[in-house]
Design a protein that fits this description.
Structural class: alpha+beta
CATH class of one domain: Mainly Alpha
CATH superfamily of one domain: Butyryl-CoA Dehydrogenase, subunit A, domain 3
CATH topology of one domain: Butyryl-CoA Dehydrogenase, subunit A, domain 3
Order of helices and strands: HHHHEEHHHHEEEEEEEEEHHHHHHHHHHH
Shape: globular
Strand content: 5-15%
Radius of gyration: 24 Å
């Protein structure tokens, strides 16, 4: 069975050389204990846990899946034991506040952990991952009493959490939420309704599950302005922190899914379940965005993770599998045929996977620095700082989630292609990666929703193009500094052209939208993908710049490692970045070519 190997070498290159995380952590109040030695030890230990505990469960968990009996969900064999080891290791509280039992390390440390766990076994990682979002929501918007009641057992990993948004009649359009919350004399609420597609809605890993639920109060305004947020525990918490009586919330069924079968995706029925209001009345959606943004950044990992895992397994296979002779002549004359790795088209697929995995990882780590500053601003009450970095991160979030998950699907399918027919059968695990990855472009907002959020809300409505101008200024400043280096000049020149084009495209769409509102929707996907390719180009240029410097002045890695970085950057710019121009052309196409057919005309006719 294929195995996962934590990419610690590349992770450390980004952390220490490209983004200077030691200096970054030294600037944070929460970074006092995140010294290079401590960070290195955490990465090594987490990598070991993922390789030894989580990776071996990946394929068996898919084969067995979760089961439901009498309203209780059972996870696959080995999951409970692995989760217990997760708890013993203190992994859930890595970035949680010390006052609630956490280790108080920067938020980005949690993302590094999540990347390795998600790559080794995405289904498993979803259970603690959903809990982190619930913990963040309670920490940001809960009362002191709610924080005291829920955060300690959740930080310890004894209790888990979920996000309950979607209902049978509505997904993204949460204005259609019908779940009701009836106020009670004792200050609690009775929550009634059905939620679907609830990840980790029920399971046997923890003694309690805390549901974060969107519902409507009586007389609430229609649409999204009338939604409130509630804490609905599976078991009522006792005053001493123990687990009390069972609440009237049960799993009605398990979704029969294409992938991530070891992750319990539940239909949850709330039948006069006792709930507690969190945050102000009718502002539940605003509070829920804390959870959703956490989830979207986490979901972006499912673009990087499958690219990394599929690349690792495809690379090993390409080195061992022999087929035909290389067109340039025999490479292994003593063998019956040459290894796949010697064929140019196989190299194309492998390098595409490598460029996506390592470029996407750089995008995540760059954004994680912003998240650290944002979280610290909230924790210290520095509203100005929190809002500043929230805006910067908000611009990147839909790019990370939408673009990286689309490319993660591409990388997973390329891995299957490298294996040929063997990639299509279960034995080698490649088809599982492709199945598991497919959901990433759908949940927490489809790619189309991310694109509308980016172009319609973040760029046009909220900042009038300012978000693009600010980010491209950062990219252009970097590019100008490297115009005199012959190895980096091609990258720098391309970046300068792209930053100018990005701004021009934004203005042209803005002007076109004044006459045709459908332009925003018709252009949004291509705008997002274009933005993603340019952002990844910036990340590859940054890696190339460090690699070139280390080749000249020495570094911690081998010469071959740095040369590989430069070669992969060149591959990205010459083979993948040109895709951006196709998206640039397409986004300027008038919306009428999408809208001119009526629904009846689009139907099949003889």
């Amino acid at each position: 069975m294929p195995a996962y190997k934590a990419p610690l070498r590349d992770m450390k290159f980004l952390l220490n050389d490209v983004f200077d995380y030691p200096k970054h952590y030294a600037s944070l109040a929460s970074g006092e204990n995140a010294t290079p030695d401590i960070v290195d030890a955490i990465l090594i230990e987490c990598g070991r846990f993922c390789e030894e505990q989580l990776s071996p469960l990946y394929q068996p968990g898919d084969e067995e899946g979760c089961s439901l009996k009498d309203g209780v969900v059972t996870t696959p064999k080995g999951y409970k034991e692995a989760y217990d080891q997760y708890v013993v290791g203190g992994w859930q509280g890595l970035s949680a506040p010390e006052e609630y039992g956490g280790q108080g390390l920067p938020a980005s440390m949690g993302l590094l952990k999540q990347e390795m766990m998600g790559t080794a076994n995405w289904s498993f990682s979803m259970y603690p991952g959903l809990s982190m979002g619930a913990m963040n929501t309670i920490f940001m918007h809960g009362s002191d009493q709610q924080k005291d009641a829920y955060l300690l057992p959740m930080t310890e990993g004894r209790w888990a959490g979920t996000m309950c948004l979607t209902e049978p009649q509505c997904g993204t359009d949460l204005g259609q939420v019908k779940t009701k919350a009836q106020p009670q004399a004792d200050g609690t609420y009775k929550v009634t309704g059905t939620k679907i597609f609830i990840s980790s809605g029920d399971h046997d890993l923890t003694e309690n599950i805390i549901h974060i639920v969107l519902a409507r109060l009586p007389g609430a305004p229609k649409g999204t302005r009338g939604i409130s947020l509630f804490i609905v525990p599976k078991f009522m918490p006792g005053e001493d922190g123990s687990v009390g009586e069972r609440n009237t919330v049960v799993c009605g069924s398990l979704e029969k899914k294409m992938g991530i079968k070891a992750s319990a995706t539940c239909v949850m029925n709330f039948d006069d379940a006792t709930g507690f209001l969190i945050g102000p009345e009718n502002q539940g959606l605003e509070c829920m965005f804390t959870f959703m943004n956490t989830a979207r950044i986490g979901t972006a990992i499912q673009g990087v993770g499958p690219a990394e895992l599929s690349y690792q397994w495809a690379l090993d296979y390409a080195k061992e599998r022999r087929s035909m002779r290389a067109l340039s002549g025999k490479k292994e004359p003593d063998q019956v045929a040459d290894s796949l790795i010697h064929h140019a088209d196989v190299r194309r697929m492998l390098l595409t996977q490598k460029a996506i995995a390592e470029g996407g990882r750089a995008m995540l780590y760059d954004a994680a620095r912003l998240a650290d500053h944002m979280v610290e601003g909230h924790a210290t009450g520095d509203t100005e700082k929190a809002e500043k970095y929230d805006d910067k991160l908000g611009f990147l979030t839909p790019i990370l989630k939408g673009f990286l998950t689309e490319l993660g699907n591409e990388a997973a399918n390329l891995g299957m292609q490298v294996f040929g027919g063997h990639g299509y059968i279960r034995e080698h695990g490649m088809e599982q990666i492709a199945r598991d990855t497919r959901i990433a472009t759908l949940y927490e907002g489809t790619t189309g929703i991310q694109a509308l959020d980016l172009l319609g809300r973040k760029v046009l409505l909220t900042t009038k193009g300012g978000a693009v101008r600010d980010f491209t200024a950062r990219v252009a400043n970097f590019a100008r500094k490297h115009l005199t280096d012959s190895r980096l000049r091609p990258f720098a020149l391309d970046l300068l052209k792209l930053t100018a084009q990005w701004n021009l495209l934004t203005v042209r769409i803005m002007l076109a939208a004044r006459k045709d509102r459908d332009v925003v929707s018709s252009a949004s996907y291509d705008f997002l993908m274009y933005s993603g390719y340019v952002t990844m180009a910036y990340m590859w240029a940054r890696q190339a710049a460090v690699a070139a410097d280390r080749l000249d002045n020495g570094g911690d890695e081998s010469e071959a490692f740095y040369k590989a970085k430069l070669a992969t950057a060149e591959f990205y710019y010459e083979r993948l970045l040109p895709r951006a121009q196709a998206h640039a052309s397409s986004m300027l196409s008038p919306s009428k070519n999408l809208m001119q057919l009526s629904a009846e005309d689009m139907a099949f006719t003889e």
